[in-house]
Amino acid sequence: MQLAEMETEKKALPLPAELTLVIPTFNERGNLRELIRRVDAALTGVEWEMIVVDDDSPDGTSALAKKISHDDPRIRCLRRVNRRGLAGACIEGMLASSAPVVAVMDADLQHDERILPQMLQRLREGIDLVVGSRHVEGGSADEGFSARRAAISRFAHRLAQKALHADFSDLMSGFFMVRREIIEECAPHLTSSGFKILADVVASARKPLKIEEVGYTFRERQAGESKFDIKVGLDFLGLLLNKASGGRIPVRFIFFALVGSTGVALHLATVNLALLVPGVGFPLAQSIAVAVAMTSNFFINNVITYRDAQLKGFWPLLRGLLYFYAVCAFGAIANVGVAAWLYNLYPLVSLSALAGVVMGAVWNFTLSSLFVWRQD
Ligand code: GDD
Ligand code: MN
What we know:
alpha/beta; Spore Coat Polysaccharide Biosynthesis Protein SpsA, Chain A; 2 domains; seven-stranded mixed β-sheet; 7 strands; elongated; binds guanosine-5'-diphosphate-alpha-D-mannose; binds manganese (II) ion
């Protein structure tokens, strides 16, 4: 082949994308075509591509995405099976890109695609990360948010700012654009569960990032329903605590310990209540409280700490509960053993008692993870 011919052939190839849009989806079939239409309209003059990362949605989102990619090769789909998780989907999508810039955006048309060119412009000018923000001037959350959600979001966000020392306003945003190299560098340190990918990226970045915000109005969801719930909020809390401990304490243990502390509160309340009943002495009151607290811990852990391995149905729940009682008994032995041993070495009551509690919690957690809730 002549060199000239090769040149023309090369020209016929599409230009490499400057921007990869990563779109996490779960049951977004009804929004996909409209999303692509809007993105295409917003990004005229930009070489872009889209990676739809679908967690095997029952509504067939991935099949539709793949069908669309026959007519429009800028669209690709990454179908993940037997896995769920927004953050993980975003990370995998971003790592599948080879463009210099990647963006994450929801599929449900709540994020305003018209600010994409402005975001890209800021990156071209040397900014590392641009956040589509509902709180800066020109941004608003009035349309798409319920009052309760708005309050949770404000609270989570104040907490996050403190924990991550980040001073931009929409840390919970699922709409952002970033240099791909930043993601490549911090990817091994990111958590793949939950919704808090942006805060995680900021906390895990290898160097301080130049961050800017562009405001937009959070729109009503068009089709389908939101997957954001209280568990998502808890997950976020777990991430903050994990980062605050320098990543040394696993998120699941943090939840386990938090649930344990609700158990302690419940225990104290129950003892005091039971003692009000005539004829009930302290040993009985204490025993009732132990049973109540353990049972409550079991059910809360089942929906929060081990939600991915949740036990359902009467028999699995009963079996799990009995195992959990057994595990707690071991935990109590570990607790008392360590506390007594330490007290012998250094007769400091609070220190020994606390060491016992921590030891008991670690035991309970380890045994629960092994025997009560098995994760694959
Ligand atoms: N692949 C995948 N896997 N995608 C998911 C999953 C999942 O497990 N869960 C949700 N998604 C997709 C949805 O299909 C949607 O495109 C996007 O992630 C956001 O999910 P929504 O369920 O619509 O979230 P939201 O609107 O309630 O939450 C928004 O606000 C939060 C902050 O308050 C999002 O922008 C979040 O990213 C943001 O943290
Ligand atoms: Mn949404």
